[in-house]
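Q: Convert this sequence to structure tokens.
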Amino acid sequence: MSAIITEAEEIASMLESQKAGERIAWLYETYGDRVVASSSFGLQAAVMLHLISTHAPKIPVIFVDTGYLFPESYRYINELSEMLDVDLRRYVPRYTAAHQEALWGELWAGDKGEQQKYATINKVEPMNRALQEIGADIWLSGLRRSQSSTRANRALAEQQSATLKVYPILDWADAQVSSYFYDNRLPKHPLEREGYLTMGDWHSTRKPMAGEDAESTRFGGQKYECGLHEQSGENDFQI
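A:
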């Protein structure tokens, strides 16, 4: 008896031989309003945003604003938003930063449970709300295998509860990202010039010390994922 092929496996198989722009165009042409994208406006976010702007500008792009980004990140968001043709949708946590700290203190600096609470409040709940309000169940993200050990074995498409996640540039190497920036004259995140290897909230992202890789500079080296892209069942999204 042959194995049942899931929708995620079918999509991954279809995308395997396509280029990134073709993948995004095909997904929107095939699934239409089911498709949404997200952007953290990190160091390499301009690549996915430019690809979407070029190949499927009607795809809504969700930006989850924790309220804890670097000032440079907020200015970079404005720069890219004005430059690219994207349908940007901003979502914020139900609790402001001040409200959270008044009730629970600095959750990001706490133990694993407190950090999980921080991720749920600031990342997972707003993203889940965005997916529900927009009505999409196919989520495009700019994750790449070469970014971290936690992403090395990802498939081009994978099911996360009721949401199907697709990674159009998953197989891109760092050199390909650099070439894309150069060829399309895309602005770099200002903190990249200062030595940052990855980008997130100001309290959990720092510049590397000698010999450190990107994973070591997030959350004190305890983890790399912010909460939205963990493969465990803890943060599965329910539509």
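DSSP finds seven helices and six strands in the chain.
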